[in-house]
Specification:
single chain, alpha+beta, 4 domains
Amino acid sequence: LERLISWARMSFKPAKSRFLVLKKGKVVDRFRFAIGETAIPSVTDKPVKSLGKVFNSSLRDSGALQQTKADLTAWLAAIDKSGLPGKFKTWIYQHGVLPRLLWPLLVYEVPITMVETLERTISQFLRRWMGLPRSLSSIALYGHSTMLQLPISGLSEEFMVTRSRELMMYRDSADKKVATAGIQVKTGRKWKAHEAIDRAEARLQHNILVGNTAVGRAGLGSFSKPRYDKAGRMERRQMVQDEIRVEVEENRRIKMVAMYQQGAWTRWEHAEKRKITWPELWRLEPQHLKFLILSVYDVLPSPTNLQRWGMADTAACQLCERRATLEHILSCCPKALGEGRYRWRHDQVLRALADTLSIAISNCRYQPPRKKLITFVRAGEQAQHQPGSSGGLLTTARDWELQVDLGKQLKFPEHILATALRPDVVLTSESTKQVVLVELTVPWEDRVEEANERKRAKYSELVAECRSKGWKARCEPVEVGCRGFAGQSLPRTLKLLGVKGQLCRKAIRNIIEAAEKASRWLWIRRGDPWSSRPLGHKLGADHPRLGRPSEGV
């Protein structure tokens, strides 16, 4: 009775209503409907929009999809003509255009092929805004497992995750009528949401059978992961979405492995990944970011690449007349080595490392001594060893002395041992009779492990002789890639010495940026004369040639 009364009290609004007449599957526009004297407009005359989706007489989404494509082109063109720097344009796409574009791709039946077409259009604008060549793969822009990760999301990946989440919301709905309605999410023939969800759930079920696995050197059980069978509904949905992203990233990596030149970073087994965040992107100069990206994927205009692209007749080095690849220019040119170019870059990185160690020694020297706690054990019980948080080697003494092979030739302390070897850094403590050798190398990223083994073998006899004299000696080789990627030995050595937390992260950032800036300077002056103290040798100071865009990459 209450429902009948409510229906009777309802007032219809003909102007906001719509009608559509179909005869044998075709739209017929011969009839008109009205309530009283007020006519009801047809969908043909006035299309209706609900939740962002337009319903018209065609009963198809093709017109709306073409409008979405035109809107995207107009948005990107407006951003392109805004006059803003390229990184600001990129930020507007990530936080303005991408969220606004995902909604029509969600409410309409969009095939994945059209999404890929839209992504190619977006990639063209992103390359232009960041000053990157058209030959650079889009994986460099959107990859999340690459060595250099940018804070940009790919449209195809976000579309797959969005449509999969939509299907799971229907399937796992608390309303039984919605869950059993059999609602389908159509995304074309190339990629189907329900198949992607099935694959993701199968992999999660397989992970349950496998159990926890060891990743890296952290040890078994160091990183606990939630089990799919014990997770809640919302957590399961998120795990499936993450697994779909993993599958997309695996496909990207497969494509990159097949690319010999741009995929060379897949062979960097002992280098740390570098993730560029938005705060770091604001701080980086455009030419520095451009050089970093192009050097990682080896698409800089080196003589070898220019010859490959048909823009030069020869690929000879301007210094030694050998074949000039990027590796040759930044790491292997014998004349550049003889002129001291690589030594100058090595000193720039060593100076940043020495500054870090000097700050760490000062911090440890003025810290109050730690009190030794007494552990009481009950009668009949055994003492349980509780591993405490070690502060590192620098906290074991207050008289550490730092010697660095900069400015003047370093001489190993004669009261310890007489030797002609010259480590880059020597840390000594007379009270505890400790000596730590730190040897820095700035190699090509493919040869990080080779450099570590070579330096360790070089100083093995010196370490053994120091130990025979009663000193606690150790050698820690450190590698920093010439393109600004830290070897795994750098964070390990810093943590061993006691440089941890935010100080360690800041130190690593300063060290790798020093290597990157020095290599960029070597690239700019790859054919110019060189002196022992080149103009602009202190990269912290502004130099007209470093800051001029025409003299950049």
